[in-house]
Design a protein that fits this description.
Residues 37-82 form the NADH-ubiquinone oxidoreductase 51kDa subunit iron-sulphur binding domain. With 608 residues, the protein is α/β, with parallel strands linked by helices. The protein has four domains: 34-125, de novo design (two linked rop proteins), CATH 1.20.1440; 137-215 and 540-547 and 577-600, no CATH class; 225-308 and 471-530, 3-Layer(bba) Sandwich (FAD/NAD(P)-binding domain), CATH 3.50.50; 320-467, 3-Layer(bba) Sandwich (FAD/NAD(P)-binding domain). A five-stranded parallel beta sheet has the order 3-2-1-4-18, sandwiched between helices. It has a five-stranded parallel beta sheet with strand order 6-14-7-8-9. Strands 10, 11, 12 and 13 form a four-stranded antiparallel beta sheet that branches. Helix 18 links the parallel strand 7 and strand 8.
Length: 608
């Protein structure tokens, strides 16, 4: 008999691995609003099955906790039961020997404290008390609430213009979002339970690229005038919907072009300028007036309020953040905001043959790094104090930067910009880091026991975020908190009659689709403020639902141009779906809007 044997994967292990994968998929695409009581009870029950039984808090405590949750769900609980759940969960969390026990206790503790009202509603009313989302998961995951199943069905039917009409009911910038949206909707796509989430962004882009022109219906003129300060996605979206409602709108933009961070924050290899200009021009052709190179100060905002019936402040977040490092003000140190602004104004710097160090780990850091490569930089190093996996940039953006030759130096914290005798940049001193525990939900680094290093470079680009130039408006009396303009829930500015605000200047730097939603919400509330109740309505007939989702079919991805080819220009990197790919992708939709999802059974959100 052999003394040792090679361990092989058994059939039972293979089956269990498949079950784990199915569970992972289900959790990844779970509804945005499950009942927190039932969800936590299921989690605790699953953890109880994983217990090894060696420690009492886990072996006995989790099963006891599970029974207490059952009492709540089966209407046997009292208010004292909730206190017992909290004390039991706390004991398990503090005294279990391993993560199986203490994480289960921590989750139960978070739930009973964070959703106390829901637990009490179960006890008092014997029913769920939470506000269940009435939309399908992908629509709930879209900040603008776009009817995704509807336009996917229209694409599958070959009705591309109607698909774009449906998208523009909630999002007037479908081409922009087809190219650069971070597609949070795909995170919740239930097709992911079957094989892969749908390529929703790719389908949107395909629809726009194959649609014909059309003219949306505009309500009769109301005689009311609205000023929109800022021509970014929030301002343009607000102006579009107010125009459809019959109001006269003027956009006041401080720069030479509209687009905001779409133009001055996203490079043209991701969002071509001609495509952006074409989409904005289509919106302006609805009858919107524009005044370019028109900055608005606090004093002028007061004048606008006298000349217009309402005003919408959507100035974005165009100021750069400082690191506070020695040497940061030296010639050769640039902000990412300034670099991308110059690119937006067709005034690129000359990086030919230079070594560039980029500080940051977000999408903007990847954008300026990849832009530097295209500007002729000999070497580009992205310096980040956390791990690559902790970067806030999208994974495909990090991979794209690395494919184009950018180096990523993670776990190195910038300490000083090194300069020569003339004060010019010659390097960046960094301190090696070691990753530690969680702080504010993210792994926090700390200095490692290693000496500092100096990265030789000719330029340092700081890409650590953006600030809001709110000071002129604060002087006027506009209330701000941490630099952000404070608003009421409807977007109105407290104490300023007829003044509304939204987008990055109100929420802080966020995504394009969130800015679009801010503009949409503001338009509806400004319309009400002006004394109207205009509605933006669904004006297309949707194809009948056909259930075709049980046939396994993997996701079609959009491909990119070869890295060796694309680094030499600013042409669009990503290729769209082919006809065959787009129709196959659209056919994968499970049509959750029809088959068993909330209020979409028998109806949809037809107007707002």
């Amino acid at each position: 008999m052999a003394r040792l044997s090679v361990m092989e994967r058994s059939e039972s292990q293979a089956i269990m691995s498949s079950m784990h994968e199915m569970l992972e998929k289900r959790l990844a695409v779970s509804s945005l609003a499950p009942c927190p009581v039932e969800f936590t009870a299921s989690y605790v029950a699953m953890c109880a099955t994983q217990s090894c039984g060696k420690c009492t808090p886990c072996r006995v405590g989790l099963r006891m906790l599970h029974h207490l949750f059952d009492d709540v769900l089966e209407n046997r609980a009292t208010m004292e039961t909730l206190d017992l759940i909290e004390s039991t969960a706390r004991t398990i969390y503090l005294s279990s020997d391993c993560a199986i026990g203490y994480e289960a206790g921590e989750v139960a503790l978070m739930a009973v404290r964070g959703f106390r009202d829901d637990f009490e509603h179960h006890v008092k009313n014997h029913a769920c008390g939470f506000a269940q989302s009435q939309l399908v998961p992908c629509v709930s995951g879209c900040p603008a609430g776009v009817d995704i199943p509807g336009y996917v069905a229209l694409v599958e039917a070959g009705r591309y213009t109607e698909a774009v009409r449906l998208i523009r009911k909630d999002n007037p910038l479908p081409l922009v979002c087809g190219l650069v949206c971070e597609h949070p909707c795909e995170m919740h796509c239930r097709r992911g339970m079957v094989d892969d989430p749908m390529n929703i962004r790719g389908i949107k882009r395909y629809a726009v690229e194959h649609a014909d022109d059309y003219a949306p219906r505009i309500q009769p003129a109301t005689g009311r005038r609205v000023a929109v300060v800022g021509g970014g996605p929030a301002g343009v979206s607000c102006a579009y919907y107010l125009t459809l409602m019959g109001h006269e709108v003027t956009i006041l933009e401080q720069r030479a072009h509209l687009g905001g961070m779409l133009r001055y924050g996203i490079p043209s290899y991701r969002l071509p300028r001609e495509d952006l200009d074409r989409e904005i021009r289509w919106i302006l052709d609805r009858g919107i007036s524009v005044e370019l190179n028109h900055p608005v100060s606090g004093d002028e905002l007061a004048r606008l309020r006298a000349d217009y019936d309402a005003a919408y402040l959507a100035i974005g977040a165009h100021a750069d953040k400082k690191l506070g490092l020695p040497g940061e003000d030296a010639p050769g140190v640039l902000s990412a905001v300034a670099l991308l602004r110059d690119m937006g104004d067709d005034n690129p710097p000359d990086f030919d043959g230079l070594i560039v160090a980029v500080i940051g780990g977000g999408n903007v850091a990847m954008d300026v790094a990849r832009t530097s490569v295209r500007l002729g930089a000999k070497r580009v190093v992205i310096v980040y104090r956390r791990r690559v996996g902790d970067m806030t940039a999208q994974a495909e953006e990090v991979a794209g930067a690395q494919a184009e030759g950018c180096e990523v130096l993670d776990l190195h914290a910038p300490q000083e910009v090194v300069t020569d005798a003339r004060g010019r940049v010659v390097g960046l001193r960094v301190a090696p880091q070691i990753i530690g525990g969680l702080r504010r939900g993210r792994p926090a680094p700390r200095p490692a026991e290693r000496p500092d290093e100096v990265i030789a470079c000719d330029r340092v680009i700081v890409a650590i975020g953006q600030d809001i130039a709110s000071a002129p408006f604060e002087e006027l009396g506009v209330r701000c908190e941490r630099g952000r303009i404070t608003t009421n829930p409807d977007g109105s500015v407290p104490g300023k009659e007829g003044l509304f605000s939204g987008g990055d200047c109100q929420s802080g730097p966020a995504t394009v689709i969130r800015a679009i939603n801010a503009g949409k919400v503001a338009a509806g509330n400004i319309d009400n403020y002006l004394g109207f109740d205009h509605r933006i309505e669904l004006d297309v007939d949707l194809p009948p639902a056909r259930f075709t989702g049980k046939v396994s079919c993997a996701r079609c991805e959009m491909r990119e141009r070869e890295a060796s080819e694309r680094v030499g220009d600013f042409a669009l990197v990503e290729r769209g779906l082919t006809d065959e790919e787009a129709h196959q992708e659209a056919s994968r939709c499970l049509r959750c809007d029809h088959f068993g999802m909330g209020a979409f059974r028998g109806g949809r959100v037809e107007q707002w």
